[in-house]
Amino acid sequence: MNSPEIGIGRRYLTETRYSRAGLGEPRRAYPRAPLHKEYPQAQARLSLKPEARPQPADLWQCLSQRRSQRCYQERPLTQEELAALLWATQGVTLASQNYLLRAAPSAGALYPVETYVAVHRVTGVTPGIWHFRVQDFSLEMVREGDFRRPLVAAGLSQNFLGTAGAVFIWTGVLNRARWKYRERAIRYLFLDAGHICQNLMLAATALNLGVCPVGAFFDEEVEQLLEVDSQEEPALYLAAVGPLP
Questions:
Q1: Which domain holds residue 214?
Q2: For 2-12, what is the mean pLDDT?
Q3: DSSP of the chain
Q4: What pTM, to 2 d.p., does this model score?
Q5: CATH number at residue 233
């Protein structure tokens, strides 16, 4: 009886396994990407307040109440709510030498995941695609406009991506991790994105906001919205956020 063909996913896992026999073998080298991505020609910049946090919430209650929520009020998110969510996901908790340690963990403290926010309805924030600058806790505009329809289309017609106040979009800068971990780094990109999204969901629960993460989307269409290089910075994960009804 013929064995089933091994798919690309299984081959990737097999070829990126660590083994004692393989340690020390020559490996392909990758260039080291900058620690932070910047948009010097950004159309606009918006400084946020990292201290904009809600009243203390009980962690165990947030864990028990966390759910994927797809229905949102029409009221905008506030800048304070957006700032609190950004801090929970990628806020700096300690500056140590050349590293900015953050609220979510990352393999080797390399932080290859970049955060973009598609703003639909946030008080005082122009609708468009914004990039989060971790180093000074600010947003820089990548593209201005209403991207609700193309985002819904890119997300396999999941309408809540358009009715949310904002959609977090995470990409992975491959060579920020591959220079150290080579091809195994791809495993860590998705682990990092998962840590970040869980922080978002718990913070949103504490703020009485709804979140729904999305892994099903047309990769190229999301990357085109962000104007990123799909070969060097692929889209990883999305999450819609809005006030609960």
A1: 43-243
A2: 81
A3: -PPPPPPHHHHHHHHT---TTTTT------PPPPSS---TT-S-EEE--TT---S---HHHHHHH--B-----SSPBPHHHHHHHHHHHH-EEEEETTEEEESS--GGG---EEEEEEESSBTTB-SEEEEEETTTTEEEEEEES--HHHHHHHTTT-THHHHSSEEEEEEE-HHHHHHHHGGGHHHHHHHHHHHHHHHHHHHHHHTTEEEEEE--S-HHHHHHHHT--TTTS-EEEEEEEEE--
A4: 0.94
A5: 3.40.109.10
